[in-house]
């Protein structure tokens, strides 16, 4: 498509110059207007008369007013189709260029006020979009679509390439006065010309070739639109102000709607992020990765969740749950259940007891609070996995040799049913294996049932494992999500992947000690021998002192044998367990006191320390960094 003399685009080959769909054609009823794609325009070839429903006939040519109403109706419908800010503004630009105007600039407040919140002062307008019909022919052919006219791509307008990106509106200036008036105006008066110059801060067509249309939402002016026509086109007429007013009103209401929708979507995103872990822990002996996908853009919150919680003895709890529904209420219930699980896990209860108490909590929240959950505890030292299930899809494991299996765990009843016992099963968890916990949104859809989806998931894992095993966790999660087809996602999805590395037996030292006055001395001797065997003699003095303090405290309260365990991983970890439920607390001893300084020493000399209550007693632990010259422990192989 080339340019004819005078700047008019030449019609495509084979297109009559006076056809309504030709680029230079005039839309009947709108002087100087040109047809835009997707905008219905009455054709000159329509029948001269058509019967009315009342039995009459329609005039040979519709009135200009009727055609104008048809154009405004089509344009406002196009604007109203948008749901976010960019779609609304684009809908306005596509509706007016080139049908109604040659170029358009859209300015919006920055920041854009939302709902009933008070706008920020001073008033600042930011250029959101500029569009125009192109001067030069496009390199790619433009297809001719019957009845749709010629599709003209819109590009940034060179006439206003220097337009101000931001404009700070002076409250006593001409632009503020025009915006307060709300009505669209021609730039043929000194006041409007001055307002237009203040807004764009560059040379633009004036007179009746420019319309300045304020965009007023429900309560306030939220922006302005500038409509421009080139000299080779008839200027705007008085009736065009009515068209501009209608388009500006619908655009402003759409921008208000998009701002409200954007805020609600942002609240939903923040709520979902707050309900899910910010980051996964990195416990010893296991690697973790996760994914979460909402059900749809219009339902960004849901009841699916995942979690990974470190437990005493270097164990880790792996949890995935699903509250029925994907709404704000489901997310709120999910948050309460997740908090309950974290509290129960801190008590180090067996998995089946965690689900039992979680079921009780769900019943307290209401009779219709239903959820499914799988709770697994991995022990990297014993290489064992204990799993309890409450109506959730079973986990799938990819072994180090590429073999895949669906774990046989008791199905159990969903959380919230009440009065139903839960069972746990203990399974081997060899080093190099990968465990996948997921919600039913990954495997169930309108086109397939749960078990078909689980089999498809197992096959995908087998295919990945046949290429490289064990595969990297992050790409593995992406591969797993690829089993979803274009229309398969009906529910939100939570996915938790755990790679079992384990801790080699050679990196663990474990003793039972009787609680008597000589126990601390024996503990120091055992610890020194273990550190010599590992080549950690540099830590011997510090570890002996710390172990002596913790063991002495355990001997003071214990009634049964205490446990002492050393773990060599990326740090040196010491754990002392006894059957006394009271947790120790650090205090500052007075100068005349002879006790109360043990935990203060532990706090000052260690990298981390803590105390965890068990179902029968407690564990006090501390960690020390390994010296740079220390030999690194070998990974536990399959």
From TrEMBL:
Keywords carried by this UniProt record: Hydrolase
Residue spans of biased composition, Low complexity class: 15-36
InterPro entries xref list: Bact_Sigma-Reg, GAF-like_dom_sf, HATPase_C_sf, HATPase_dom, PPM-type-like_dom_sf, PPM-type_phosphatase-like_dom
One of the Pfam families matching this protein, by short name: SpoIIE
Signal peptide: none
Ranges that cross the membrane: none
Bias-annotated ranges (Basic and acidic residues): 51-65
SMART domains, alphabetized: PP2C_SIG (SM00331)
Stretches for region Disordered: 1-65
Keyword Transcription regulation in annotation: no
PPM-type phosphatase domain span: 286-500
Keyword flag Nucleotide-binding: no
Listed name of the protein: Serine/threonine-protein phosphatase
UniProt organism field: Streptantibioticus rubrisoli
């Amino acid at each position: 498509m080339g340019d004819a003399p005078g700047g008019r685009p030449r019609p495509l080959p084979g297109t009559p110059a006076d056809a309504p769909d030709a680029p230079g054609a005039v839309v009947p009823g709108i002087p100087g207007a040109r047809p835009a794609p997707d905008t219905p325009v009455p054709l000159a070839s329509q029948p001269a008369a058509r019967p009315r429903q009342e039995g009459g006939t329609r005039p040979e040519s519709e009135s200009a007013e009727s055609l104008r109403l048809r154009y405004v109706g089509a344009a406002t419908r196009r604007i109203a189709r948008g749901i976010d800010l960019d779609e609304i503004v684009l809908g306005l630009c596509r509706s007016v260029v080139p049908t109604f105007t040659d170029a358009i600039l859209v300015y919006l407040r920055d920041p854009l006020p939302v709902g009933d919140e008070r706008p920020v002062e001073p008033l600042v307008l930011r250029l959101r979009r500029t569009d125009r019909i192109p001067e030069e022919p496009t390199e790619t052919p433009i297809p001719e679509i019957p009845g749709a006219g010629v599709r003209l791509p819109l590009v940034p307008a060179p006439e206003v390439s220097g337009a101000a990106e931001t404009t700070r509106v002076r409250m006593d200036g001409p632009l503020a006065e025009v915006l307060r008036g709300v009505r669209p105006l021609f730039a043929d008066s000194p006041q409007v010309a001055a307002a237009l110059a203040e807004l764009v801060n560059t040379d633009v067509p004036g007179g009746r070739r420019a319309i300045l249309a304020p965009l007023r939402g429900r309560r306030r002016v939220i922006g302005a639109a500038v409509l421009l026509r080139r000299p080779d086109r008839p200027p705007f007429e008085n009736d065009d102000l009515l068209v501009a007013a209608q388009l500006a009103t619908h655009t402003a209401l759409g921008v208000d709607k998009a701002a409200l929708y954007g805020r609600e979507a942002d609240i939903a995103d923040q709520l979902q992020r707050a309900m899910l872990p910010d980051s996964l822990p990195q416990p010893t002996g296991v690697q973790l990765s996760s994914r979460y996908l909402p059900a749809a853009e219009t339902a960004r919150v849901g009841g699916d969740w995942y979690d990974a919680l470190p437990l005493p003895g270097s164990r880790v709890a792996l949890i995935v749950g699903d509250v029925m529904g994907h709404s704000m209420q489901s997310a709120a219930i999910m948050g309460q259940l997740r908090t309950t699980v974290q509290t129960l896990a801190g008590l180090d209860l067996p998995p089946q007891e965690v689900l039992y108490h979680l079921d009780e909590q769900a019943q307290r929240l209401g009779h219709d609070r239903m959820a499914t959950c799988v709770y697994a505890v991995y022990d990297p030292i014993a290489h064992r996995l204990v799993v309890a299930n409450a109506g959730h899809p079973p986990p799938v494991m990819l072994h180090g040799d590429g073999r895949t299996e669906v774990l046989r765990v008791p199905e159990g009843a969903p959380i919230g049913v009440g009065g139903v016992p839960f069972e746990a099963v203990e399974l081997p968890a060899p080093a190099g294996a990968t465990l996948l916990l997921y919600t039913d949104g990954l495997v169930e859809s309108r086109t397939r049932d749960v078990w078909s989806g689980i089999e498809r998931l197992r096959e995908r894992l087998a295919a990945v494992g046949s290429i490289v095993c064990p595969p990297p966790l992050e790409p593995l999660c992406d591969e797993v999500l690829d089993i979803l087809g274009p229309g398969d996602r009906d529910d939100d999805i939570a996915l938790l992947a755990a790679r079992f590395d384990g801790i080699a037996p050679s990196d663990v030292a474990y003793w039972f000690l009787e609680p008597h006055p000589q126990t601390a001395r024996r503990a120091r001797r055992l610890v020194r021998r273990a550190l010599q065997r590992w080549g950690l003699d540099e830590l011997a003095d510090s570890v002996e002192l710390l172990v002596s303090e913790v063991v002495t405290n355990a001997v003071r309260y214990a009634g049964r044998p205490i446990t002492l365990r050393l773990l060599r991983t990326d740090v040196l970890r010491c754990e002392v367990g006894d059957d006394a439920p009271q947790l120790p607390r650090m205090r500052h001893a007075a100068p005349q006191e002879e006790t109360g300084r043990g935990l203060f020493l532990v706090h000052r000399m260690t990298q981390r320390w803590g105390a965890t209550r068990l179902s029968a007693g407690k564990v006090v632990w501390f960690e020390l960094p390994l010296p740079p010259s220390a030999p690194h422990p070998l990974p536990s192989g399959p």
